[in-house]
Amino acid sequence: MPTTSRLSLPAYALHQLSRLVYPVFCVGCGNPMHALTQPLCGNCLRLLPATHSERVSNSPITNLFAGRLPIQRADALLFFVSGGVVQHVIHAFKYKNRQDVARFMGRWMGNLLLQAPHYPMPDALVPLPLYRNKLKKRGYNQALLLAEGMGEVLQIPVAPVAVMRTRHTETQTRKSRIDRWLNVAEVFDLNNADQLAGKKLLLVDDVITTGATMEACGHQLLRIPGVSLSLISLAFAHSV
Ligand SMILES: [Zn+2]
């Protein structure tokens, strides 16, 4: 028992006992797990719907940005299936305060890139920023946590304040692609551009749908002299 604990001995014993009696649950399938070291059970991890886009030189996700943003490449590592494990994982770190899940998936992303033989490693990871009010409400930026998990595995620094979202965007459902672009096009301002000049940047987000937000942010990053840009997200969701 740690000497700094404020729990009395019976309370501490009860606390330890509760961890044995009440299992933790996998965020993917909801089944009880005994391992406390990771948020997904072995079965969910094995069955994650990987795209394998990081393993090929011409990632199909890159085509989504053709003619829109001059990037080196774009990758999304999982298929987002409604009601599936990936949706549950994203829901947990977006709406249930499961910051550990975002960091875990960030490390998972980093390991996948390490295993991809030809993936071009960036100099710095840039998490897609959240608007300030949203950040205040959620308390953290899930893209930053993903980037930190990746950075830990890849030993690549994270530049969290390279871009700032300066205006709240309206809800993006029921808008055309052009409307979406206009809606987010001017909400990013650079604030530490000098440190990133000449670097290979990798912009990180949780889900790519239309790519409009990454596109707007990417245009700002590409204003930094000498920068080359790639994009990555945990998941790809078809727009409806
Ligand atoms: Zn599971």
Q: Could you characterize the architecture of this molecule?
A:
- Helix 4 packs across helix 5 (99-115) and helix 8 crosses helix 10.
- Helices cover 38% and strands 16% of the residues.
- The strands form 3 sheets. The protein has a 4-stranded parallel β-sheet, with helices on both faces.
- Helix 10 (212-221) links the parallel strand 7 and strand 8 (228-236).
- It is built from 10 helices and 8 strands.
- It is α/β, with parallel strands linked by helices and 240 residues long.
- It has 2 domains: 9-47, no CATH class; 50-236, Rossmann fold (3-Layer(aba) Sandwich), CATH 3.40.50.
- 38% of the residues are buried.
- The structure holds zinc ion.
- Zinc ion binds next to helix 2.
Summarize this entry quickly:
The protein has helices at residues 9-21, 42-46, 60-63, 85-95, 99-115, 132-138, 142-154, 177-184, 193-196, 212-221; strands at 24-25, 32-33, 74-79, 124-127, 163-165, 188-190, 200-208, 228-236. The protein is of the alpha/beta class and 240 residues long. The strands form three sheets. Strands 3-8-7-4 form a four-stranded parallel beta sheet, sandwiched between helices. It has a two-stranded antiparallel sheet with strand order 1-2.
